[in-house]
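Re-run with default settings, no changes from the original entry. Doing this only to confirm the output is reproducible before filing.
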Amino acid sequence: MAKKLHLWLVFLIFLNGFVSMALELVVLRQLAFFVGSSAVITSIIMGTFMGFMSLGYFLGTRGKFSAGRARRILAGSFLTISAFAVFAASFPFVSKYFELLYRLGVTSGVVQTFIFSFLFLSVGPFLFGYNTTLLSRILHKYNTNYAGNIMAWDTIGSVAASVATTLALMPFIGVNHTVMFIVALALMGALITRARPYVFAVGVLILAGCVMINSDRVQEKYFGIIVNNANSTISVQGNDSVRVLYMNGLPMSVYYPQYAAGAEYINYINENFIYNMPRDRRRKILVLGAGGFTAGLNDDFNEYTFVDIEARLRDISESHFLRSKLTPNKQFVVRDASQYLKNTPEKYDLIILDVYSNSYQIPENLITAEFMSRIKSRVADDGIIIMNMVTSASFRDTYTRVFDNTFHRVFPYNTQRQVMGTANPWVAGDEISNVLYIFYNRKNSGRIYTINKTPVIYDVY
């Protein structure tokens, strides 16, 4: 075999492994914000991906092929992969997919993931497996001892993609540009295998569509997307009457400039727990999940620490959402909420946990008894913890009931459950509301009144 041909075949195997792993990681990132990243969701995505890839490995061994036919098949495969990558990994398409399913009444994250996987993660992975087998058979024709090297280069491509995609591409150039890069690599594979005008023409059309839907200008103009990185896709929509901050396609914060007010539950917290604080001293307030920085918006006296994993959130809020600078008494810390609580020695007079922004995107590590115990260890004596949840006001679903059990396991006394707005307990769906779980860190012996011992008069007076 000519050395040049050998190198091209090895490169295509490497490229195939790189593109397949990079696409899988980007899809996992995009879907995590709609259905979470639990072991069940990840196993569905990876299982579908690997299953169809295995089918491609198997069917790639069937039939005879000539060099020309192999090149046509590989070119077509890479073109098809690039087209499916645009639909499977572009945030606007993914967002519209979930919006459509919710309109159709499909609300289960598991079902949504199954449907998505079979629609968009079947053809591409199948062709990844088929390509690898076909390239291996070509190399095997010339060198029967090359099997180990084939597997090695495919694996090296996957390892390179896992490192580059998560540590370099998504964090620094953004997920949208990473999608363009993946599509461009797949198209490169098509042109390498068959440099024909029709392959070039189809490739240009696919790449143009990918750039159109994923470019910064188009995403900001038509979808309002300002940030699209490894952590978040952020957009701000609205006008001088009302503005909404979206993160990963979901509304996270609302602001009414005329009234300097936010969402109903934020206004409740501000009016009942912040703006009425005595001014005898500066109190320390911790906000986990910064959102649009509307908690304590008009308070320039107390000391605030906002914690969020998205580094650009403050800049976006000041430039596009609030359109004003935060007051000097407010600092922003870029860190995971659980890790911040683990490492900070501070005790806070008020802790606001606002990371459960909707009923179907739930950070699972933040609803555990262990995490709540960590929050409890950081509240000062006579301090208050407030958790904003989106749950059933009337305990209609299992998630609401289990979360309530978990909360009261850690906070058995001095608690309040405040349902915001109106909620109809008799109609499924109409009772989903913002529910504030509140804990007052005050001494409580756990004593109760019984018919045998009821010293109410001494307790009251």
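The two ends are 98 Å apart (CA to CA). Residues 3-35 form the longest helix (33 residues).
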